[in-house]
């Protein structure tokens, strides 16, 4: 059984990402979208959290939400994979369940 | 024109698009500008994300309202403040933010960029000296 974890809240305003990384099974993927995308940018106070998680799980970010907020892919932490809407659908289909950390 | 001029401060603490706060704030700033008051706009916490350059929302299917910030100087907004600590915590610098020009139509006085990065003490001071604070 695998679960796709999604986070759509800013890590600087809510603890959704923190809880997600605390409770998600190691090895299960995490997809960041909407205001959640701010977590994968280089040089932020959340960078350590994301880098540590990358050791045990795949982290994805929704490209259109990144571009909408003014950030190009070269601002994203190394190892985080940028996906489009089709990639979001694929991830949802590949995993048994989707857990939204609202 | 009203004789009493009050200092209005708009305090923005939310990122754009994820919630409606940023857009609503911008609307209220533009409405307020019509009343000839002294208007200041401040960006703190995730609010600093409202000013990032290069926002391209085509893939999101929502209106990109970021170009409007560049016009604030034309709406009698003479002061825009950004919290230094908020930028640093987010790996941002002033280079990531839009420049907002200001010009006095009567005196032709011009300021190239009214966006000012300030520290927490200055923000406290600005809040203290404001007559009205609108919080978003």
CATH architectural group of chain B? 3-Layer(aba) Sandwich
Number of helices of chain B: 3
> Biggest β-sheet of chain A, characterized?
5 strands, parallel
Query: How many runs of DSSP E, i.e. beta strands of chain B?
Result: 7
Strand content of chain A: 15-25%
At the first level of CATH, what is the class of chain A?
Alpha Beta
The largest sheet of chain B, given as strand count, sense and whether it forms a barrel, is: 5 strands, parallel
- Helix fraction of chain B, binned, reads 10-25%
Shape of chain A: globular
Q: Indicate the mean pLDDT of chain A.
A: 97
What is CATH's topology name of chain B?
A: Hypothetical Protein Ychn, Chain: A
Global shape of chain B: globular
* Low-confidence runs of chain B: none
Class by SSE composition of chain A: alpha/beta
Strand content of chain B is: 15-25%
By DSSP (H or I, 4+ residues per run), the number of helices of chain A equals 4
Order of helices and strands of chain A: EHEHEHEHE
Please explain how this structure is put together.
- The complex is a heterodimer of chains A (102) and B (136).
- Chain A is built from four helices and five strands, in the order E-H-E-H-E-H-E-H-E.
- Chain A is of the alpha/beta class and 102 residues long.
- Chain A has a single domain (3-101), classed as DsrEFH-like (Hypothetical Protein Ychn, Chain: A).
- In chain A, strands 4-3-2-1-5 form a five-stranded parallel beta sheet.
- Chain A is globular and about 35 Å long.
- By secondary structure, chain B is an alpha/beta fold.
- Chain B has a single domain, classed as Hypothetical Protein Ychn, Chain: A (3-Layer(aba) Sandwich).
- Chain B is built from three helices and seven strands; from the N terminus they run E-H-E-E-H-E-E-E-H-E.
- Chain B has helices spanning 21-32, 84-89, 120-129, and strands at residues 7-12, 38-43, 77-83, 102-103, 110-111, 115-118, 132-135.
- The A-B interface holds A 8-10, 12-13, 34-35, 38, 41-45, 47, 63-65, 67-72, 84 and B 14-19, 45-46, 49, 52-60, 62, 64, 66, 89-91, 96.
């Amino acid at each position: 059984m695998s679960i796709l974890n999604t986070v759509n809240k800013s890590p600087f305003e809510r603890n959704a990402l923190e809880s997600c990384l605390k409770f998600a099974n190691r090895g299960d993927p995490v997809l960041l979208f909407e205001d959640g995308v701010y977590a994968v940018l280089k040089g932020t106070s959340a960078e350590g959290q994301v880098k540590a998680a990358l050791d045990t799980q795949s982290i994805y970010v929704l490209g259109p939400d990144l571009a909408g907020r003014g950030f190009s892919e070269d601002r994203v932490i190394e190892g985080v994979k940028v996906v489009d809407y089709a990639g979001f659908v694929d991830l949802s289909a590949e995993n048994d369940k989707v857990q939204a950390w609202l | 024109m009203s004789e009493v001029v009050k200092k209005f401060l708009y305090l923005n603490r939310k990122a754009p698009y994820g919630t409606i706060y940023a857009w609503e704030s911008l609307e209220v700033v533009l409405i307020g500008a019509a009343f000839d008051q002294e208007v200041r706009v401040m960006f703190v916490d995730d609010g600093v994300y409202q000013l990032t350059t290069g926002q391209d929302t085509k893939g999101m299917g929502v209106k990109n309202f970021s170009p409007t910030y560049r016009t604030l100087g034309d709406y009698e907004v003479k002061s825009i403040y950004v919290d230094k600590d908020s930028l640093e915590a987010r790996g941002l610098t002033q280079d990531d933010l839009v420049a907002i020009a200001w010009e006095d139509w009567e005196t032709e006085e011009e300021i190239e960029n009214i966006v000012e990065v300030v520290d927490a003490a200055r923000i406290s001071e600005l809040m203290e000296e404001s007559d009205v604070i609108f919080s978003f």
